[in-house]
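Q: My labmate handed me this sequence with no annotations at all. I'd like to see what the chain might look like in three dimensions before we decide whether it's worth expressing. Could you predict it?
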Amino acid sequence: MAGIGDHIELEGTLIRDGAGFALRAERGAVYHLQLHRVPVDHVEKRVRITGTLIGERLIEAEGIAPG
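A: Here is what I predict for the chain of 67 residues:
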């Protein structure tokens, strides 16, 4: 398991989470995302997220790509 401050890559489904977005990972865990851009083209699609774990199940996303 990654620790806070670690660089991570995860795959899963990008979902809306209230006013923001989250990643539903392959094993069912949900990670909330801090994003620099709004990825509306990828909502409800399989994606690969790269970023930094900045809290428990909170990722500062550096990139989003189709998964």
